[in-house]
Write a structure and sequence with these properties.
Layout: H1 2-16, E1 39-42, E2 56-62, H2 67-88, E3 92-98, H3 103-112, E4 119-121, H4 126-131, E5 138-142, E6 148-153, H5 159-171
Parallel strand pairs: 2-3, 3-4
Antiparallel strand pairs: 1-4, 2-5, 5-6
Helix pairs in contact: 2-5
Length: 175
């Protein structure tokens, strides 16, 4: 049995090209943020991370079963409203990505937790694989050039205040 397993691994490595090429992609601070997209549940048609290039974007991954997501999303919505009132509407956006495999669960969640920012549903799990999400909510602050500036895993006291402070710091940097 072990010989077969080793043979399968060697064959897989040959097909992929190398073991390094098969390694999982992990997104870190300073890296170019991978695309975040899906079925648009709320927002303009074609909404995805690349369509927001040039803005500071908070990419927020969540799921309908996530209790902390239920708490964080209204706070993020309020923070977005504050920033828009302060004149940053054309420079900042939140892109919310539902990770539920069933789009209907995400739709029901959004009926309970109403937000004003764009929401897409990644029902086939591309973002989970690309971003290697291990905890929800998972939030990535992306600068105007499309690079990850900060990563938040989870939600707790002071989360929204810290996010807002970091967003403002990026907004005040020259374009």
């Amino acid at each position: 049995m072990r010989a077969r397993t080793r043979l399968a691994f060697v064959l897989a490595a040959c097909i992929v090209g190398s073991a390094e090429a098969a390694a999982p992609f992990v997104v870190g601070i300073g890296d170019k943020a991978p695309e975040a997209a899906g079925i648009v549940l709320q927002g303009p048609p074609g909404t995805k991370l690349s369509s927001l290039r040039g803005k500071i974007v908070l990419v927020d991954f969540w799921a309908s079963y996530c209790g902390p997501c239920l708490q964080s999303m209204p706070e993020l919505n309020a923070m977005r409203a504050e920033l828009f009132r302060e004149g940053y509407a054309g420079q900042f956006e939140i892109l919310s990505v539902a990770t539920d495999s069933e789009v209907e669960k995400a739709r029901r969640f959004l009926q309970r937790v109403q937000v004003d920012f764009p929401v897409v549903a990644d029902q086939i799990g591309i973002a989970i694989q690309t971003y290697k999400l291990w905890r929800l909510p998972a939030t990535y602050l992306v600068d105007r050039r499309g690079h990850v500036s900060m990563i938040y895993a989870g939600y707790g006291p002071g989360y929204t205040a810290d996010v807002k402070q970091r967003v403002l710091a990026l907004l005040k940097q020259p374009s």
